[in-house]
Amino acid sequence: MLDEFLQQQIQQKIKDFPVSIHWGTHSIIPSTTSKVAINVRNPRALMTLAHPTLGGLARAYVEEWLDFEGSAQDIMSLGQAYCNIDAGKDAQSSDAWMWWRHTRNRDRKNISYHYDVSNDFYNLWLDEAKVYSCAYYENGTEHIDQAQAKKLDHICRKLMLKPGERFLDIGCGWGALMLKAAEEYGVEAWGITLSQNQYDYVVEQIAKRGLGGRAHVQLMDYRDLPAELPFDKIASVGMFEHVGKRNLREYFDKIYSLLKPDGLVMNHGITFVELNSGGLGSGISDFIEDYVFPGGELTHISTVTEELSAAGLEPLDIENMRIHYGKTLWEWVTRLEANKTEAIRLIGEKNYRIWRIYMAGSAFSFDHNWLALFQVVAGKSKENGSLAYPFNRNHIYQ
Q1: Cα(285)–Cα(55) distance, integer angstroms
Q2: Name one GO molecular function term (predicted).
Q3: Residue 15 CB coordination number (10 Å)
Q4: How far is the CA of 5 from the CAs of 14, 23, 374, in angstroms?
C-alpha cells in the first residue's frame, strides 16, 4: 500500500517533466521522448522520488537504489527542475561546532580518503600533467591538456616567478605546478601534501626529470612548516577548502610567516556565491560531506579577503574563474564516462557513481552561479609599507 501511495505521489509530482520512470517491468511514468530515464532498483528510492532533494537523489544513485539513463548534463538539469530549488541560496550557516574537524590527524585522514584512491583512476580523466584543479581556457576552445598548461603558466606569471627564487606550493597535488616552476621558471620549488600517493608520485617525477636539488616535496601539514627559511613566492591551489572556516586566520597567518617581505602569495580556491551561505542546499552539502570531501568547508570571497588582510597580507589581484571550472568539470565527467569500465575495475561501482555525480553536480553548481572559483594574489609589504608590484597587469598576459 505504501509503495502504491508513493508511486501516485511520484506520478503527480513528475507528470509534467520530460522523464520516464520504471520499476522492473512496471512503468511508473511511461516511456516518452525524454532524454532521461530513471530505473528504480530498490523500493527505498520511491520515498526519495516522492520527496526529492538533490542530495537525496545523488545518495539514491550512489547506493544503487536507482539508475539514471541519459547525459550527466540532462540528469542534473532534470534534478534541479524536479526539486524546484535554488541550491545556492538554500542553506544557512551553522558551523559553530566545526572547530574539532580540522585536527592534524583528522585532516590527514580526510585528504587520504579523497586523494589516495588510485593514481591510475585519476589518470583516466585528468590531463597529462595530472592537474586536479580548475583549468584556464584562454579562448574557450582548448583541449584539457592545453588549458591546464595555460593555468599553470597563468599562476607562475601572476606570481612573477624568477630564477633563483624560493617557491612553495601548499597542497602540491601530483606536483604539476612546482615541477613546471622549477623546470621553466628556474625557481627552487618546494611542495607539501598530505597524500601518500601524491607524495610518492612527485618523488618519482623529481628523480625522473633530474630535478634533485631544484625541487623538493614533503609529506607534511602546512601548520608544521618552519618559518626560518622564508619563501619569495607561495601558491596554494585547491587546498584552502580543506582548512576550515574557523582556521582561515591561522592559515593566512602561517603564510605570512613563511613569506619574505616583498613576497607574493596566490590563493586559488572554491567559494560560495551566496554571502552568508552555510552550504549548498537541497541536501548537497550533506552528500559531499558523507561521500566526497569529509571535513571540506567553503566560505564567501569577502571572508577570504577579510582574513587574508587581517593576517597582514595585501590583496593585489582577484580573478573569478567560475566559468572555467564549470567547463573543466564537464570535461572531466565526459572523460570519466568514456572510461567507465576501467574506472569501475579500479575503484568499484559505488565509487565510480560518487565521482560521476559529484563532478557533474559541481559543474552544474558553477554553471548556475552557486559556486565560484577565485584566484587572489596578495603581497607582504616591507616595514616601510612599500611593495614592489607593477602598475599594470601586462606581466600576466604577455
Answers
A1: 8
A2: methyltransferase activity
A3: 9
A4: 14, 15, 47
Tell whether 91 is covered by a domain.
Answer: no
**β strands within the chain, DSSP E:** 19-23, 26-29, 36-40, 66-69, 166-170, 188-193, 215-219, 231-237, 259-272, 314-320, 371-380
Whether residues 202 and 155 fall in one domain: yes
Q: What is the rounded distance in angstroms from the CA atom of residue 102 to the CA atom of residue 80? A: 32
- The enclosing domain of 159 has a CATH number of 3.40.50.150
Which residues face 259 on adjacent strands? 231
| Residue at a domain's end among 19, 51, 84 | 84
* One domain for residues 329 and 264: yes
Name residue 64's amino acid: E
Instruction: Kindly state whether residues 43 and 105 are assigned to the same domain.
Output: no
pTM value surpassing 0.85: yes
Task: Specify the number of domains making up the chain.
Answer: 2
Query: How many Cβ atoms from other residues are within 10 Å of residue 171's Cβ?
Result: 25
CA 236 vs. chain centroid, Å, equals 13
Cross-strand pairs, 268:
237, 375
165 pLDDT band, cuts 50/70/90, is: very high
DSSP state of 92: B
User: Given the DSSP bridges, would you call strands 36-40 and 19-23 parallel, antiparallel or unpaired?
Assistant: parallel
Taking only the tens place, the pLDDT of each residue in 380-394 is 999 999 999 999 999
Decide which of 58, 84, 110 is a domain's last residue: 84
Does 148 share its domain with 74?
Answer: no
Contact criterion met (CB below 8 Å) for 36 and 17: no
How much is the mean pLDDT over the chain?
Answer: 90
Do 59 and 138 have their domain in common? no
Instruction: Please report which confidence band the pLDDT of residue 184 belongs to, taking 50, 70 and 90 as the band edges.
Output: very high
Q: Which domain holds residue 12?
A: 2-84
